[in-house]
Amino acid sequence: MSEDPISFNQMVAGITEFIEVAIHTILYVRQIYPAELFVRRKKYDTPVFQSRHPALNDYISGAAKAVGDELAHGTVDKVVVVIKDKEEVALERFIFSVENMVEVEAFDKNVSVEGAMTSTSLIQYFRSFLVKLCMIEAQIGQMYLGDNVSFAVVLELKDGEAPSVSQTKVSAVE
């Protein structure tokens, strides 16, 4: 018997967790922080990297929570991880497009969505992305910018949407 499709809330939780894992991996792969700051882990049956720095982890966790809150409200078009130089100029962008997420009524958010992905197919999708992400250095080369880079997590909302009331201020990590 095939696995049931996931619910809206399961999709939001899955994407939120994936975004958090992807941010850590992007920071490692693009060498935004020293490699020694990261520990190798396994998620979605693939190797990933996670920061060991408490303040950085809090920032990433807070950003992922804000993404999840907005996903739950259906307002997000894209989540963008921007790598910036010391003048705040964007050097690279990693864009996670979630504009095609299904919209459901509030009372249906815990009910399986007909035609939605199963949790197995969602995990395979996440694994595929992370494997490609870990190979990015070979495709676009290393960034040799030393200590002069930072990053930001930016939410692009759907046209006509405003951020939800439950905004969380996330302070930057230097």
TrEMBL record:
Xref: InterPro entries: HORMA_dom, HORMA_dom_sf, Mad2-like
PROSITE patterns hit by this protein: HORMA (PS50815)
Domain HORMA: 9-174
GO CC field: zeta DNA polymerase complex
Top-rank taxon, per record: Eukaryota
SUPFAM superfamilies: The spindle assembly checkpoint protein mad2 (SSF56019)
PANTHER family: MITOTIC SPINDLE ASSEMBLY CHECKPOINT PROTEIN MAD2, MITOTIC SPINDLE ASSEMBLY CHECKPOINT PROTEIN MAD2B
Annotated family: Belongs to the MAD2 family.
Protein name from the UniProt record: HORMA domain-containing protein
Record organism: Laccaria amethystina LaAM-08-1
